[in-house]
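call fold(seq) -> tokens
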Amino acid sequence: MHPSSRFIPFALFAFALSFFLAGCGGGRQLESEPAVALGPNGKPLPLMMAKGGFFNGSLLAEILLSQSRGRGGFHPAPVHGLPAADDDSASNDDIKITPEMIDEMRTRRAESPLPPIVMWLQLTSTAGQPLKVEIVDFKSDLGSFAVQPEQVALTPGQSVEAEPMISRLGVTSLEIPVTVTLRLNGKTETHVLTLRPVDNTDKPPAKP
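ret:
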């Protein structure tokens, strides 16, 4: 491939990337990483928890929120349809900027530059028989999530934890309502569980 034709995809990618990063403070500022994620009061983000019962108390749902131990700062993933920065195989004809790409870029501009936070959903059976629970919905101001796995099988007394859910939208309150919808034996229940800071005296083990 001629060097000039290889340059075109990178130029388009750089232009698109700069479009949705514009107004975020410049590249050097984006690369700086705060030591901890800050809560809405300017203090370090505390560990937060919510819990509630479903289906007449036969199922306990617990949500835990904490700062991610992953790399902080705003590091956008590649936009679908645009080549990665190190992809030298794409040609100019392969790249078409669509309205969907522009919408995704604008959405990412609204994301917080703070390190991400992580939430976990744990379900515990208090029933005397096996349960097969479907996680229908999980949404809050931190985003709407498709919890994985979608279905959880529980034996009596067993606890199962879903995969971690990561949000970059930023914590703006120390009370975060989370709407959780579960389905059991064809019956659907929705409850709002409110995340609040965990007291040090009742602090659960830290997540990895």
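The helical segments are 3-21, 27-31, 99-109.
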